[in-house]
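Usage

Read records sequentially. Each one opens with the input sequence:
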Amino acid sequence: MNKNNSSLKILLAIASLIITFFVWQQGLKDSLNRPSVSFDISQKEIEIAELAMPAVPENFKIFFPNSLREEMKNSLSEISFNELTDRSKLIWIILQDQDEDIEPSFFNKFDKTIYMNISQSLYKSYLDESYKPSNKIINDLKNDKYLFNLVSDKFNFKKDKVITNKLAKFMLFKLIIIRTIPLLSILFGSLLVFKYLWMIIKSKAINWADYEPLNLNVLDMILLISGGFVVLGEVISPVISITLVDIFSKNLSYEITQSLKILFGYLFMAIPPLYIIYRQIKFIDTSFSFKKDYFQLKIKPIKSAISQGFKGWIMIIPFVLLISLIMNLIVENQAGSNPLLEIVLNNNNYFAFILLFLTTTLIAPLFEEIIFRGVLLPVLTRDYGRTIGILISSFVFALAHLSLNEFPPLFVLGIGLATTRLISGRLFSSVVMHSFWNGLTFLNLFLLRT
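and closes with the structure output:
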């Protein structure tokens, strides 16, 4: 490598670092203005619990609040009416008692026609208790079981064909899964952690596997992360991907368009850093071949890779949830949730779900693992030791998600992914672990829909 090229690389690295600093600073700042999805999740749990109540055995009803609707009302009242979604605004109005004063302007603060029509009927009912609208106003709510149930009760409509015992049993089944999976994961994860800690204490050592870092240096890593991942991937690529989706999705639904923007956003974001890696590898290996396992993926034997990924996933769950719990205790009204979570939670299009599922469980884990655990981690570990390498790569991984309040749990997750990568000696195990983590989050959000 000649001196001019080295000087150019240094200048590019410095410029990339400066841009990255401002991009990530603004991204973290903006994350504080994004709402937390935890509010929506708790709201959905209340909805599912109410729909499930007819199927809950009498002996188990003591584990539920005396009035789920009162709990919902109190939850919604903690947020300014203007900050609520149209759907939540309508729920808030319905749950108010007849003798409570409601600001008349609230009944007109709806963008969607379906909610505005029901709100106007509620306003007439608010002014005249004897008023009863036609049940046609709820025809468009049959897919929204909770809201259908509320409106039907408010106006004494029949609801047998929509709200059935079968639905109640299904909602109870969902509620059991939603509340059981985290508890079982924490239990089995903790037991597995204690098992491995005992093995480490007995052997007085951690059995790290051999790894083969690429012949790259810190300067190359700066160009990859700052130049490729941030400047080209997070700043420039989205402009292209969003523009293309807008052009070709004019006749598609809003939900599909959203999902396509996320899918192609990830694909276009991945191209620059992956191309930079390709050029870096080709520079050090002129006989470059896609058949060579530069990242130590080591997919086969696939059964052991999946097993290692699963163990890593279930063992990190207690730590991530503990950090999340501590954050909830320290920081009230946390903001900055990944917008993707809200999109999945409120999506009602199954094709859009498939696109989001592919993005979150296949494309995102593979891309992020190649960057952070396939290239960055081994190079840092070689130059600075395993502990420093794990901590720095996890720090950058968490920072890259641009969410200040989610940084601590993502940092812990990054440590788990890095440890799995180095103990297993194969990148595919951390890809599987990452997919399991995103998949569990996706499943939980999918089940929370009503």
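Summary fields computed downstream for this record:
- The two ends are 60 Å apart (CA to CA).
- The chain has two domains: 3-33+180-447, 37-173.
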